[in-house]
Design a protein that fits this description.
single chain; 9 strands; alpha+beta; nine-stranded mixed sheet; 191 residues
Length: 191
């Protein structure tokens, strides 16, 4: 059976797991992306998914098959839909010029990035659970949104408020050695 490939229009990434797999929940870790696009842009992909479902599952099961599209109430109001794709393997990532980015040079890709995705349309029929999934093989980053992945050093001081030293029991402040204070500079409490 020939593989049916797909490529999406560009859209906004929703909870992308491209740099590392999602390990939360049950089952094997998965690389995955939700891509929010205008609803009028999924017609061709939806028709292609239904064609593959009819060929692989038959007409009757294809009508009941779950599709890889999701729409929240907010998405409905905005005429948007989320296309979901996933894979056990890290997808190949390309920049907006179509140049491949090796995994070791891949920037952190966060939600809000503008992406295109591609891969293979797959069907499943297991224990009464029938549907179409999109196996993610490639991503193109059109506009990158990166998180800083850490803290920028805390907050500025606010005068007249509570300080951790007020809440520490007698002698607790003295339990810090000079060495610890140097290592933990900027922290006001011993957690």
């Amino acid at each position: 059976m020939a593989k049916t490939m797909f490529t999406t229009y560009k859209g906004t990434a929703v909870y992308p797991y491209i740099n590392k797999p999602d390990t939360f929940g049950q089952g094997d870790p998965k690389y995955k992306v939700g891509l929010r696009v205008p609803i009028d842009q999924i017609k061709a992909l939806k028709d292609l998914c239904m064609e593959v479902a009819k060929n692989d599952l038959g007409e009757k099961k294809a009508k009941l098959a779950r599709l890889p599209f999701k729409q929240t109430d907010d998405d409905k109001e905005a005429n948007m839909v989320i296309i979901n794709a996933k894979s056990q393997y890290q997808p190949k990532v390309y920049d907006s010029a179509g140049q491949y980015i090796p995994p070791e040079k891949l920037p952190q890709i966060w939600g809000g990035s503008i992406l295109k995705m591609g891969g293979v349309i797959n069907t499943y029929d297991l224990s009464g659970n029938t549907g179409v999934s999109l196996l993610l093989t490639k991503i193109q980053v059109i506009e990158l949104v990166e998180g800083n992945g850490g803290d920028d050093g805390g907050f500025d001081a606010e005068e007249g408020g509570w300080t951790a030293s007020e809440g520490l029991s007698d002698g607790a402040e003295e339990s810090f050695s000079d060495e610890q204070e140097e290592e933990e500079e900027g922290f006001a409490a011993n957690f």
